[in-house]
């Protein structure tokens, strides 16, 4: 034992294995005093890890090959230790452990990896672990199942699913943006604010070369109606008469179509064809002089449910309709006529003409209520202004609450003062007094009035039509007015007997289209003197403007149940008409019409400052100022006002 209490017995130090020089190292006797205190042994109670301890993530040394490598490394370490010149006493005590550690550090074994499930051999029944030759880690049956999943495939699938979700989300966003409405205009019922087109069928289109128009001709012109942009086609009298069409007013039946025009099935097909293009069909129903008085109602309205749910055909309506299988010969009732045409053709409403002759009939209110009940909320009941004016004050409200449209005729021949007066009376009178009152249906021409071009330039028709298309309510275009069709031309007086019908001249079509009748046939009336086909583009443009502008197609502003007018109309010198239209949070418009014979320059700065021409002039989209507004004779210009 030396002075450090370290044994120098060769047997304890493995003297038989170590060289003699190591056992008698001079460093043992040359320690300084302060070095002696720093070379104390580990406490005996301090546990030391076993030499065969192996961490799961360290190289494995469990087989013979590993042991052989370890022994080789250890032997080399021992040789290195023998040639070492170190003089530290701690190096003597750490020879064996350092050799083992070096064997672990410099082992040629590779780190172990998880293997496929097929490479794993389950543990034996005795609890011992079995390994394949190529397996470096034990896998027990208690290991989680997700270890054996095909993770590369799972990663690929997850990536593609994530990518597909991103693409789907982008597609949904794009689709939502694409389907967003281009405008956010207030909705309106189909007959409110839309444009009607009145047709005299015998003069529109001939398909059987007899010189007379027919229902099938209307079917063939369905695309023309769509191009115009109208909302409804209104047919004048199509009913049998003693000599149709010369005496079309002398109706002999309200439950059939005159053979010149076709059959009831043709009307049904026409309605279906128009409905495919989102166009409605309305029939004129002339009950006078065909009927002398109104019949008692056929149903008890007090016992029937209200038809305000949008259901057009209630059970009671169907029950009553099934009884109309044949046309009654006598005692015709208007309700029966309505049922017949509704069930057989599917029309969208009726203009009951001649009601002014029944204004004092005691059964009027009950009949009107029954008619509207049969029609329902989505089909219209239309009457004339004369009928409303002749109603007794006690029945006005009851009747108007059942009516949807009131036809008002605008007489342009009276000048702009008369037009302004008529519009003001209609807006401020009975018609637009309450929310539930009917809308106004404006007419510039009809089967009972002469053409606008009679005695005037064709431009007068265009100017009046464009002016009408900016009025509040529902404007109507009489067939041919969109091209300024003139009356039948009979310079030699060969058709004096039909002179009262010359305003019903045959329709003129573009040379690229089929004409009214074939070249081998003559129309039932002399041909029109002329037509301005280029006016059609201006009318189509004005109708499109009306459809997208609430300031024009809305007849008033409804606020807290009250009707607030959105129209201001002024006349000057019986030749100039200025119409202003507005709607909350929408563009305002000003329509300036010159129905006089001279070009004028107007100063309208008291009303407007500037704007942009949007219809009625070839100078479309041009900025204009109202301090010196120039307008040609028989011209109408629509300006979108700058805010």
Give an account of the 3D structure:
The chain has helices at residues 20-23, 33-36, 64-82, 90-93, 95-105, 151-179, 215-220, 222-228, 264-276, 315-322, 334-345, 364-375, 385-389, 393-400, 415-428, 458-468, 535-547, 550-553, and strands at 196-199, 232-235, 280-286, 349-353, 380-384, 405-409, 439-443, 474-478, 557-559, 562-564, 567-572, 576-581, 589-594, 600-602, 610-615, 623-625, 629-631, 635-641. The chain is globular and about 115 Å long. The chain has 643 residues and is an alpha/beta fold. The protein has a domain at 196-296 and 311-554: Alpha-Beta Barrel (TIM Barrel). The longest helix has 29 residues, at 151-179. The protein is built from 18 helices and 18 strands. Strand 4 (349-353), helix 12 and strand 5 form a beta-alpha-beta unit. Helix 11 runs parallel beside helix 12. Strands 1-2-3-4-5-6-7-8 form an eight-stranded parallel beta barrel. It has a six-stranded antiparallel beta sheet with strand order 11-12-13-18-15-16.
Rounded to the nearest angstrom, the radius of gyration is 51 Å
User: How much beta, percentage-wise?
Assistant: 5-15%
> Tell me about the biggest sheet?
8 strands, parallel, barrel
**What's the total count of β strands?**
18
Top CATH class of the domain at 196-296 and 311-554: Alpha Beta
Name the CATH homologous superfamily of the domain at 196-296 and 311-554.
Answer: Glycosidases
User: pLDDT below 50 for ≥5 consecutive residues: which ranges?
Assistant: 13-18, 21-44, 60-112, 114-135, 309-316, 320-330
- Helix/strand structural class: alpha/beta
Report how far apart the termini are: 114 Å
Reported CATH architecture of the domain at 196-296 and 311-554 = Alpha-Beta Barrel
CATH topology of the domain at 196-296 and 311-554: TIM Barrel
Taking strands numbered 1, 2, ... along the chain, how are they ordered across the largest sheet? 1-2-3-4-5-6-7-8
| Principal-axis shape | globular
How many helical stretches?
18
If you average the pLDDT, what whole number results?
79
GO biological process, one term: carbohydrate metabolic process
Keywords: Membrane, Signal, Transmembrane, Transmembrane helix
Organism: Anopheles arabiensis (Mosquito)
Protein name: Glycosyl hydrolase family 13 catalytic domain-containing protein
């Amino acid at each position: 034992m030396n002075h450090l209490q370290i044994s120098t017995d060769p047997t304890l130090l493995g003297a038989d294995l170590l060289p003699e020089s190591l056992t008698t190292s001079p460093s043992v006797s040359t320690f300084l005093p302060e070095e002696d205190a720093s070379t104390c042994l580990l406490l005996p109670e301090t546990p030391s890890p076993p030499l065969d301890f192996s961490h799961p993530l360290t190289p494995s040394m469990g087989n013979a090959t590993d042991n052989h490598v370890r022994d080789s490394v250890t032997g080399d370490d021992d040789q290195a230790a023998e040639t070492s010149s170190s003089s530290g006493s701690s190096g003597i005590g750490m020879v064996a452990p350092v050799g083992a550690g070096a064997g672990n550090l410099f082992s040629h074994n590779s780190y172990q990896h998880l293997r496929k499930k097929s490479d794993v051999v389950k543990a034996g029944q005795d609890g011992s672990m079995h390994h394949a030759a190529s397996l470096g880690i034990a896998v027990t049956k208690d290991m989680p199942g997700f270890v054996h999943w095909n993770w590369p495939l799972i990663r690929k699938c997850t990536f593609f699913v994530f990518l597909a979700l991103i693409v789907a989300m982008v597609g949904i966003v794009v689709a939502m943006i694409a389907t967003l409405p281009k405008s956010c205009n207030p909705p309106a019922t189909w007959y409110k604010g839309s444009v009607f087109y009145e047709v005299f069928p015998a003069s529109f289109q001939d398909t059987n070369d007899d010189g007379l128009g027919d229902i099938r001709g209307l079917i063939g012109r369905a695309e023309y109606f769509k191009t115009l942009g109208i909302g409804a086609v209104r047919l004048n009298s199509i009913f049998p008469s003693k000599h149709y069409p010369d005496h079309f007013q002398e109706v002999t039946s309200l439950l059939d179509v005159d053979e010149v025009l076709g059959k009831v099935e043709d009307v049904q097909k026409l309605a279906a064809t128009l409905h495919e293009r989102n166009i409605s069909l309305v029939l004129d129903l002339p009950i006078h002089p065909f009927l002398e008085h109104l019949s008692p109602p056929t149903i008890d309205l007090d016992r029937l449910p209200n038809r305000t749910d949008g259901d057009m055909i209630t059970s009671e309506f169907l029950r009553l309709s099934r009884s109309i299988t044949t046309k009654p010969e006598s005692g015709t009732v208007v309700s029966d006529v309505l049922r017949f045409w509704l069930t057989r053709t599917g029309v969208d409403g009726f203009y009951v003409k001649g009601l002014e002759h029944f204004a004092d009939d005691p059964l009027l209110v009950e009949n009107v209520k029954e008619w509207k009940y049969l029609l329902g909320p989505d089909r219209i009941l239309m009457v004339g202004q004369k009928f409303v004016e002749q109603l007794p004050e006690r029945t006005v409200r009851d009747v108007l609450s059942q009516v949807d449209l009131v036809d008002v005729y605008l007489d342009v021949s009276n000048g702009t003062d008369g037009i302004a007066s008529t519009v003001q009376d209609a807006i401020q009178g009975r018609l637009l007094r309450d929310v539930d009152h009917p809308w106004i249906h404006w007419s510039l021409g009809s089967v009972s009035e002469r053409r606008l071009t009679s005695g005037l330039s064709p431009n007068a028709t265009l100017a009046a039509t464009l002016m009408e298309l900016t009025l509040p309510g529902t404007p109507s275009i009489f067939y041919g007015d969109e091209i300024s069709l003139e009356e039948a031309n009979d310079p030699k007086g060969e058709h004096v007997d039909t002179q009262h019908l010359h305003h019903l001249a045959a329709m003129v079509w573009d040379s690229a289209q089929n004409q009214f009748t074939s070249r081998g046939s003559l129309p039932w009336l002399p041909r029109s003197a002329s037509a301005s086909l280029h006016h059609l583009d201006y009318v189509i443009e004005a109708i499109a403007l009306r459809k997208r502008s609430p300031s024009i197609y809305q007849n008033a502003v409804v606020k807290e149940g009250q009707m607030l007018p959105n129209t201001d109309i002024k006349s000057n010198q019986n030749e100039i008409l200025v119409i202003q239209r507005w709607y909350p949070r929408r563009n305002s418009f000003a329509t300036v019409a010159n129905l006089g014979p001279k070009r004028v320059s107007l100063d309208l700065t008291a009303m407007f400052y500037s704007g942009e021409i949007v219809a009625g002039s070839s100078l479309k989209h041009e900025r204009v100022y109202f301090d010196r507004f120039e307008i040609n004779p028989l011209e109408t210009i629509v300006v979108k006002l700058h805010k």
